[in-house]
Design a protein that fits this description.
- By secondary structure, the protein is an alpha/beta fold.
- Helices cover about 35% and strands about 15% of the residues.
- It contains 13 helices and 13 strands.
- The chain has a seven-stranded mixed sheet, sandwiched between helices. The chain has a four-stranded antiparallel sheet with strand order 10-11-13-12. A two-stranded antiparallel ribbon has the order 8-9.
- Strand 5, helix 9 and strand 6 form a beta-alpha-beta unit.
- The two termini are about 20 Å apart.
- The model has no long low-confidence stretch (mean pLDDT about 90).
């Protein structure tokens, strides 16, 4: 696991990285004098970096910087990481703004009231982008910033569950077995939210030719214990937009009281500009909440997400904490407390710097680049699994045509590309269609047409290399 680190035993920590026998070789220690000719002439360059225990003594700041920077040089190049939706480019001016805000704790509204005001501006802009109802002066949409869509989704699930529980208790009915309906191809944060908050997961499974939720099947799964249906605008696997309108219309037709939460983590900043007439948001009466990631196509570095509720009735009051630091109530509904203000400020910069026209221009370019890449991959013999022409996210999901009898698979191609520095993930499809292997390229803002051409050439080279190998050599090479 990447996110869970085990603490080594004392014996393992002492062994460190010293090669066997090296501990017997004696060297004269470099001089203690810190005024050395270079970082690499200091005693620190001849020592291991501390790994398990904080060192007793300090080191000069220039040396600490260089040693850590050298350590980090082993990481990949973020711009060549085509597996990730997360933003890897921002302008110098916004980077400066964000750096200046690093000391600010966003939650401290009393000290940083203008930062809180900037968040409120962002919520208002995003809510209007999602067509939230704004006609009434008495009832309005509500929203908040989060550290990403994972937190936003957990808040959405928690509010749907609590609202369902309150209704069941008011009716004198059992409220111990809530369930939520979603596509089996959901991002893992949905599974986390369901398990953390003790909600049963009911799935509409993908097939070998359908990678999104089946609206009819989803609605048929609804029962009295269903807290809501999750619909995805931009799936993780293929980038497709699920048919939120079809789910909404079936619920209305069958007179079923079941809310929809739209997971627009990836598509929330794409669909409004590429397919503005597509009804997936608050224009649909059953959609009660929407989340979006600012750090994906919202064009902000990692650490910001958003969730918006149609109106206060869909956010139970007992979940909201009111703070009056500013002389008036400030509503707060988050899972964490302290967090940096930089990403919220970065989001505001991007929205007022680019405006609707700027976002539309960027998303159009990304869509064109994705279509261009898909056309090139199709010429190379790949089967394209994602939707083009703006009918999905600007990404390309593709796989080998098994009927052509290749002696290698998508994982072998990914391995070859990694040797050139590209990170293009190979993976299996969602449950019940996991026999399908596939690859995916996420087209982000800094993935230009020229870089796309370079990737295509490297894919051609990878195919040539693998075609020249026999099956056994391919297997050995992957190991």
């Amino acid at each position: 696991m990447v996110h869970l680190a085990s603490v080594p035993s004392d014996a393992a920590a002492r062994r460190g990285s010293v090669a066997e026998g090296m501990e017997k070789i004696q060297f004269n220690d470099p001089a203690e004098d810190e005024a050395v000719a270079s970082v690499y002439g200091s005693r620190f360059a001849a020592q291991d970096l501390p790994q398990h225990e904080m060192p007793e003594r300090e080191m000069p700041k220039e040396i600490a910087y260089r040693m850590i920077r050298d350590d980090l040089s082993l990481d990949g190049n973020p711009m060549l990481n085509l597996a990730s939706f997360v933003t890897t480019y921002m302008e110098d001016e916004v980077e400066k703004l964000m750096a200046e805000a690093l000391p600010k704790n966003f939650i401290d509204y009393e000290e940083y009231p203008q930062t809180a005001e900037i968040q409120n501006r962002c919520v208002s802009m995003i809510a209007r982008m999602f067509n939230a109802p704004t006609q009434s002066e008495h009832v309005s949409a509500m929203g908040t910033s989060t550290v990403g869509s994972s937190e936003a989704i957990m808040l959405g699930v928690l509010s749907m569950k609590r609202r369902w529980q309150n209704k069941r208790k008011a009716e004198g009915k059992d409220s111990s077995r809530p369930n939520i309906i979603m596509n089996a191809a959901v991002q893992v944060c949905w599974e986390k939210a369901a398990r953390y908050f003790e909600v049963e997961e009911w799935y509409s499974y993908c097939t070998e030719d359908r990678y999104v939720i089946d609206p009819e099947e989803a609605v048929n799964l609804v029962d009295e214990n269903t807290i809501g249906i999750c619909a995805i605008v931009g799936t993780t696997y293929t980038g497709e937009y699920e048919d939120v309108k079809a789910i909404n219309d079936l619920l209305v037709k069958k007179n079923i009281d079941c809310p929809i939460h739209v997971d627009a983590a990836s598509g929330g900043f794409v669909a409004p500009f590429i397919v503005p007439d597509l009804p997936w948001d608050f224009r649909l009466e059953k959609v009660v909440s929407i989340n979006v990631s600012g750090h994906k196509y919202g064009l902000v570095y990692p650490g910001v997400g958003w969730i918006v509720w149609r109106s206060p009735e869909f956010l139970p009051k007992e979940l909201v904490f009111n703070i009056n630091y500013l002389g008036a109530d400030q509503a707060s509904f988050t899972l964490n407390f302290s967090k940096g203000a930089s990403q919220v400020i970065g989001q505001y910069y991007q929205m007022i710097r680019l405006g609707k026209r700027g976002f539309r221009s960027i998303m159009m370019n990304l869509t064109r680049t994705a279509d261009y890449l898909a056309a090139n991959l199709k010429q190379l013999g790949f089967l394209i699994m994602s939707k083009g022409g703006g009918q999905g996210l600007p990404l390309v999901a593709f796989r080998l045509d098994r009927e052509k009898g290749y002696h290698y698979d998508e994982f072998a191609i990914a391995h070859q590309l990694r040797e050139r520095g590209w990170v293009v993930p190979a993976y299996t499809m969602a449950p019940h269609s996991e026999n399908l292997k596939m690859m995916r390229v996420v087209v982000r803002e800094d993935f230009s047409r020229a870089r796309c051409d370079t990737l295509v050439q490297d894919i051609k080279l990878a195919l040539q290399t693998l075609n020249a190998m026999d099956q056994k050599t391919v297997e050995v090479h992957q190991e």
